[in-house]
Prior knowledge:
alpha+beta
Amino acid sequence: MNGSKLSINRICAVGAAFLGLLSTATVTAAFLFTRNPAIVWLGLLFILLVFICAALFMIFLRRKLVLFLDRLCETIDNMLDGASAPPQVYEEENLFYKINHRLVRLYEVMRENRESVAKERADLQKLISDISHQVKTPISNLKMVNATLLEQPMPEEKRREFFQASSSQLEKLDFLMQAMIKTSRLETGVISLNRKIQPLYDTLAAALGGILLNAERKNIHVSVDCPAGIVLAHDRKWTSEALFNILDNAVKYTPAGGNIQVSVQSWEFYVKINITDSGKGIAEGRQGMIFKRFYREEEVHDIEGIGIGLYLAREIVTMQGGYIKVASTVGCGSTFSIFLPRG
């Protein structure tokens, strides 16, 4: 700052000396040509007035510049500390206003970046915590089964049962890791959805193909009403994944002999897909929680699953500009409505 003041003072001194020399030369030349003292005095008075005006202007400009630089340094320090936003300056369209306006924009960008980094860090910590919590049970079970097989003699039939239990835990662990990989890739933007205008019928058929075997095992009747001519912009692979997750939940929580109905309606701006089951239903107070990652109701912990299917389904649908609604009554089943934009 001292260097800047010294430079300004030096420039002012040089300018004043140059103006003084020029004025002296001008007055001297006027006196030599006219030999009239009155003209010399008038010239000296005019030069004095010019000097006074120039000095006042330089004092005003210097004070304005110093105040602006002090405020600029203070604002930048506050921005670096993240303390507060730069004060808004409501003045005419001058240099000070333009610089302040850009500082406000710069602060907003820095704040958004800082908040984004903080959110990503919190999400990463939560994801790591969730992974740690979810893999703890299957790994503990695998350790226990392995220790039992190594340390205790047992008949071949019992050993086979332990191997089957171990295989089941490995499948659960593999399913969990695959789900976590899909989730992390979607959340971090590693996977971008490729929306193309294409028929919904084939996408829905692919999703249904993944649940028909389990539905047949439980003697669940699945009915589908989807006109073949409905087309909309969507990513076939990931939309099929979202629909499969909802259908898979419907099969899991619908008792043997129940029904699942799938219907598709084409609206002006959206395509609505209803998936209705005759399962246990969801209490109204829990309907907003079922889309959270790893959320599972206490009474369904004996049913296979890790509580990530609906979370993935909502993320996939939301990334395509759609949304999901749920309507349910305990004991009377549930209806999941998926709305996908046509364009």
